[in-house]
Amino acid sequence: MIYMFFMEIAKFYSPNFNQKKRSNKSIKLIIIHYTGMQSERESIKRLTSLQSKVSCHYLINRRGKILRLVKDQNIAWHAGKSMWGKYKNLNKNSIGIELVNKGHRYGYQAFPKIQIKKLIDLCRNLKRKYKIKNKFILGHSDIAPLRKIDPGEKFPWGYLSSKGIGIYALKIVGENRWEKNDNIEKLFKNLRRIGYRYLKRKFKNKIIKNFQRRYRQNRVDGILDLETLKISEILAKKSNIT
């Protein structure tokens, strides 16, 4: 066992990382994923297989046990083609955390309280150690919205934000909040200020859905309405991506 700020973390080796070590200063982001496989065993097998060419730094199972597969100072292969703000191909600047969950393909599950508690503890430690800002605690679907949908609409971003992890926006109240709005240019301008990239009109429904999966989880329909636009405006005003 190893301990990081009094956390118990089990060591489990993955060979899928860059041999060249990075500096602590280069670690700027935390990226949260779900495993999207039928079992924990399958997930670990894939994340530690040379053939898969994928990995993560930490995996948290549904009982709250934390495994470290790759050391923080090594670049794990979890983000793939990705962008956020000025950062591109985010493997080199991020810590990847996988949560065991079957995902949308195999029967998407709610995230157990103990799993989320351990995630919050881990994120707090990583924030402190690497001086990571809340605006850089992201989901895979934030940094690769055309390819990924995890951790999905059941992931409790609002609860994490209440515990000082990540950012969120309060729910908008109003009778006309679901009224359709066609101002996609304004939405994309707001999303760009927040940090989103890959903003292509032909993929607008996919982009809107992923934004809603994070910030408007009770209605994920890919339709630009007044509520979705208003949430983007609130977040854009809070953001100062550098």
**Largest β-sheet summary:** 7 strands, mixed
What is the name of the CATH superfamily of the largest domain?
A: Peptidoglycan recognition protein-like
Q: Strand order within the widest sheet? A: 1-2-5-4-8-3-9
Shape: globular
Explain this structure.
It is a single chain. By secondary structure, the chain is an alpha/beta fold. The chain has two domains: 7-162, Peptidoglycan recognition protein-like (Lysozyme-like); 184-238, no CATH class. It is built from eight helices and nine strands. The protein has a seven-stranded mixed beta sheet with strand order 1-2-5-4-8-3-9. Strand 6 (83-84) and strand 7 (87-88) form a beta hairpin. It is globular, with a radius of gyration of 18 Å.
Concise overview:
By secondary structure, the protein is an alpha/beta fold. Helices cover 31% and strands 14% of the residues. The N and C termini lie far apart (37 Å).
Could you outline the blueprint of secondary structure elements for this entry?
Blueprint lengths: L1 E3 L2 E5 L17 E6 L5 H8 L10 E3 L5 E3 L14 E2 L2 E2 L5 E6 L3 H4 L6 H18 L6 E3 H4 L13 H6 L21 H11 L9 H12 L10 H13 L4
Helix pairs in contact: 6-8
Tag the structure with descriptive keywords.
242 residues; alpha/beta; Lysozyme-like; seven-stranded mixed sheet; two-stranded antiparallel sheet; 8 helices; 9 strands
